[in-house]
Design brief:
The protein is α+β, with helices and mostly antiparallel strands. It folds into two domains: about 5-95, Winged helix-like DNA-binding domain superfamily/Winged helix DNA-binding domain (Arc Repressor Mutant, subunit A, Orthogonal Bundle), CATH 1.10.10; about 100-240, 2-Layer Sandwich (Alpha-Beta Plaits). Helix content is about 35%, strand content about 20%. The chain has ten helices and ten strands. The chain has helices at about 5, 15-30, 40-45, 55, 70-75, 100-105, 120-130, 160-170, 190-205, 230-235; strands at about 50-55, 80-85, 90-95, 110, 135-145, 150-160, 180, 180-185, 185-190, 240. The strands form three sheets. A five-stranded antiparallel β-sheet has the order 9-4-6-5-10. The protein has a three-stranded antiparallel β-sheet with strand order 1-3-2. The longest helix has 16 residues, at about 190-205. It is globular, with a radius of gyration of 20 Å. The two termini are about 30 Å apart. One of its GO terms (cellular component) is nucleoplasm. Its main location: nucleus. Pfam families: La. It is found in: Nucleus.
């Protein structure tokens, strides 16, 4: 790691709280809530037997404030999830991440209808979702069009299936979730996946025009603004953060 990289930002005091925040952020990057959807980070992991240069990690926007880098390395050595290489240059998971996509989808909800013309929506919605969920949401991902413009849809991940179901049931159609007095629509990710599979099957059968409606618990559920035949491509364009 070059000296210029280490000293390119102002050093801060690493209080116990700062150390916890720093470690939590890096552990999030390698977690089931981020790594499967982070195309850039995943490509490095796959090429280097799981290892990622710490010099790369500290260039991420949410890590730039943590300096000096030598202290970041010390903090990462305290992790029970991650391990640091002997030379202090790289970090990786102690155990390879095994993804159960079906279980993950049971802990996700897609929330649709947010304004698309506001700035700093990632930060705004992280705080807003943390408040309305009483801290049960672990990740907020803004879905974006091909031009990277926010399309008004957000995928939220919960700590557990129970938390996800409780949040969904809390906001029925008769008493919907609202943001700045605008009604939002909710659909469980698993229901969206089932609808997408049904739509594909219908298209392959040659039965005609593609369906535009959602099936599931709620009637007339709107479709996502940008639907893709390749879910990974969509997910890789989302902006996400730990909250």
């Amino acid at each position: 790691m070059s000296s210029s990289r280490r000293n390119s930002f102002q050093n801060i005091e690493f209080t116990p709280e700062t150390r916890r925040e720093c470690l939590k952020q890096v552990e999030f990057y390698f977690s089931e809530f981020n790594l499967p959807y982070d195309k850039f980070l995943r490509s490095i992991v796959n090429k280097n037997n799981g290892w990622v240069p710490i010099s790369t990690i500290v260039t991420f926007n949410r890590m730039k404030k943590y300096r000096p880098v030598e202290t970041v390395v010390e903090v990462l050595k305290e992790s029970k999830i991650l391990m640091v290489s002997e030379d202090g240059e790289n970090v990786k998971r102690r155990e390879a991440l095994v993804i159960d996509k079906d279980l993950q989808n049971l802990k996700k909800i897609i929330v649709m209808g947010f304004p698309t013309d506001k700035e700093n929506m990632q930060e705004i919605l992280e705080k807003w979702f943390d408040d309305v969920s009483s801290g049960s949401i672990t990740q907020v991902r803004l879905r974006r069009e091909r031009g990277k413009k926010f399309n008004g849809d957000v995928i939220i991940d919960f700590k557990s299936v129970e938390d996800c179901n409780a949040f969904y049931d809390k906001y029925p159609e008769a008493d919907p979730l609202t943001f700045e007095e605008k009604k939002l629509s909710l659909v469980k990710k698993k229901d969206f996946e089932l609808q997408k599979q049904a739509t594909k099957a219908k298209n392959f059968s040659g039965s005609g025009q593609r369906s535009r409606s959602f099936s599931g618990h709620r009637k007339n559920m709107p479709k996502l603004t940008q639907e893709s035949n390749d879910e990974k491509k969509d997910d890789n364009e989302d902006e996400s953060a730990v909250i």
